[in-house]
Design a protein that fits this description.
alpha/beta, 7-stranded parallel beta sheet, globular
């Protein structure tokens, strides 16, 4: 009769954490809060560093290692338990070269009952000197005759989040849990095809995970890590290929014809070489029988809107309609205001569809689109609605596309499966990152800036110099210039530190030297008509100061605006700061950006980050800096794709390995 299978024999990467001894509901909940849901997730929660215990130092040589971490081995001479107001355990350890002392202030009784005199111990800790050399709370292995000691020459250290610590998930708990899984898990998933594994000479996944969680040799660690990195990159490459297939439907051949020259004649300036190159590339995609699925990216002020409109001429010339989607109502209105002028001159009708328009206008627009009387729709998320139907949709343009997910793009695709897609991003993506997050798109990068764009003088302003800054701004206002004043929050919740809310700053400005300049507020919780009125008063000059949240990050184009103030600049990402700065310097006037910060003088990292931003106006460099300063684990804000930032950061560090994974996927699926 066959023996009954144990639960451990059915373990796999999808098994729940609750099956691991010692992981009760509270600990499981804390691990889930850190996105560790299964046994596989826990095995992929890799050590952040290792404590090297492979080199044993003689006690007589400890003077050379003061204030550093090292390992010693010796015999326990005395165990001294001091029971004063605060308990303390002192253990005297010696070898043939001298004596040292190990000291514990916590867990005193446990160590006092477990450490035996005359036994041999291995201690690892930071060396200090207080009468004699000491280690406070060292890592301890006791060598007992006849008992096997599991000594780890490289001790893994895991990141312990606050919620994990509160639930009792500490280093010891993670070590025991991971070890139990590795001892009992028999079924490992196969992600890499055998052909790829053999070609790359990778060890099996089981061996890699065992060695990473319990390495025996430091020089082999990188080999095992490469296997895990490659496997992640391989999954990303597969995902990108699948995304490309989702959009790879038959398209239409569309050319712009005579509309190109008509549009050129409307412009009071010539296209830049960068704009012309991008237009030629996109017209080539539109003229293909394959559906266009392209991303147009460029720095602030490079003229992306104009290039995208030239691309739309291909659909308009062939009798098709265009749907242009923006992430905010402010951007949608401004885009429509600009594009509608061009449409009228070219003989086409446009319509605006967003939350703030009157119901009669909306009804007329919907009817015009269905019957083909309106050829161009500009709007927000309203364009996703089932009520919005087109007679003959030929092209979809999505501005600031990183704010929309793949599902939203697919929703627009359902309105007409053969229409071309042009996505735009005003947030420059580091060239090293573009292939990762946008590998399923044809990339078109618009280089250069428009003639006449001013460099923006950017300065860090400590809070105590606010009055000096506002006196300078007052002089700018008296010269006819206008000012954006951006704050990070509409409201501030308890515990958010010294961050400023829009109401707080509004009261400060009303009491200060700018009180008579006309101050309008704008933020996302205002009604649509209130926002539009505030924008119109700022646009016409009735008010000189526009106090806003980052709602004005994109799409606002007012030539008279020459000053940008960003309150609590340390709360913004560098790329977001760059976008906000891009709202000024759009006319012939000298332009300034002031980053108000409450950073403490000792915060060298925070100041270095802002100094990097002030040192360049190149959005691609700033995006690289931003990733470097953020590091893994913080929101990158690039794409709703399922790729998490640690993977992206690994790609940046290991670009060659990622390229190899992309090539292997390509070769396998030719």
């Amino acid at each position: 009769m066959s023996s009954r299978p144990t639960p451990e024999s059915h373990l796999d990467f999808l098994s729940p954490l609750s099956i691991v001894p010692g992981l009760g509901p509270k600990r499981v909940g804390a691990l889930k809060d850190s996105s560790i849901h299964t046994i596989g997730d826990l095995l992929n929660y890799l050590p952040t560093r290792y404590i090297d215990r492979s080199h044993v130092v003689r006690i007589g040589d400890l003077e050379q290692y003061t204030e550093t971490t090292c390992t010693v081995a010796g015999s326990v001479e005395r165990v001294i338990l001091e029971r004063g107001r605060k308990k303390r355990l002192r253990v005297i350890v010696s070898d043939e070269t001298g004596q040292m002392e190990a000291v514990w202030f916590q867990g005193v009784e446990i160590y006092a009952n477990s450490i035996r005199e005359e036994s041999r111990v291995i201690l690892t800790g930071r060396v200090s000197f207080y009468g004699r050399h000491q280690m406070i709370h060292p890592m301890t292995d006791q060598l007992i005759e006849g008992k096997k000691v599991d000594f780890q020459p490289f001790y893994p250290v895991y990141s312990i989040k606050k919620t994990m610590k509160e639930a009792g998930v500490n280093q010891k708990c993670l070590h025991k849990s991971v070890r139990w899984i590795l001892e009992n898990l028999q079924n490992y998933p196969r992600v890499l095809p055998q052909a790829v594994e053999k070609k790359r000479g990778f060890p099996p996944l089981a061996q890699c995970l065992k060695q990473i969680h319990n390495p025996q040799k430091a020089d082999e660690l990188e080999r095992y890590m490469d296997r895990l990195r490659y496997e992640e990159f391989y999954k990303v490459a597969l995902c990108l290929r699948w995304n490309r297939k989702k959009y790879a439907l038959p398209g239409r051949r569309m050319v712009a014809g005579a509309l190109v020259e008509k549009m050129r004649e409307l412009l009071p300036f010539s296209l830049t070489p960068g704009q012309q190159k991008a237009i030629d590339t996109l017209h080539g995609y539109a003229a293909s029988q394959h559906r266009m699925h392209a991303l147009l990216q460029g720095d602030v002020g490079s003229g992306k809107t104009l290039v995208a409109f030239f691309t739309c001429l291909c659909a308009l010339n062939e009798g098709f309609q265009v749907s242009w989607m923006a992430p905010t109502e402010i951007l949608a209105r401004q885009t429509f205001r600009l594009i509608n002028c061009w449409l009228q001159e070219l003989g086409f009708r446009g319509a605006l569809l967003c939350g703030g328009i009157a119901s009669s206008e909306k009804t007329a627009a919907l009817k015009g689109l269905v019957y083909g009387e309106i050829q161009f729709a500009v709007g927000t998320h309203a364009l996703f609605m089932p009520s919005v139907q087109y007679r003959k949709l030929g092209m979809v343009v999505i501005d600031e596309q990183q704010r929309f997910g793949a599902q939203q793009r697919l929703a627009l695709q359902e309105k007409e499966s053969a229409c071309d897609f042009l996505l735009m991003s005003a947030t420059p993506i580091p060239r090293s990152l573009a292939k990762t997050v946008y590998g399923d798109l044809d990339m078109v990068t618009l280089s250069g800036t428009l003639p006449g764009r001013k460099d923006v003088a950017t300065h860090i302003v400590p809070m105590h110099k606010r009055d000096d800054m506002e006196r300078f701004i007052l002089r700018e206002v008296t010269l006819g210039n206008r000012v954006y004043y951006v704050v990070p929050r509409i409201e501030v919740e308890q515990g958010q530190g010294s961050v400023s809310s829009i109401d707080t700053v509004h009261r400060q400005l009303k009491r200060g030297v700018l009180r008579d300049c006309g101050i309008e507020c704008i933020h996302g919780r205002m009604k649509s008509d209130e926002r539009e009125l505030a924008m119109e008063q700022f646009r016409t000059g009735e008010s000189a100061v526009l106090l806003a949240t980052s709602i004005i990050e994109v799409g606002i184009d007012i030539a008279e605006a020459s000053v940008m103030v960003i309150e609590n600049g340390e709360y913004f990402g560098l790329s977001q700061l760059h976008q906000l700065r891009g709202r000024v310097g759009r006319g012939s006037r000298d332009a300034y950006c002031f980053i108000l910060t409450g950073l403490a003088k000792g915060d060298t990292t925070g100041y270095e980050r802002l100094r990097k931003f002030c040192s360049t106006g190149d959005g691609f460099k700033i995006a690289e800096y931003d990733l470097g300063f953020r590091g893994p684990g913080e929101p990158g804000g690039y794409r709703q794709s399922g790729f998490h930032d640690p993977v992206i950061v690994e790609v940046l560090k290991n670009r060659a390995l990622f390229e190899e994974a992309v090539k292997d996927v390509h070769d396998l699926f030719l």
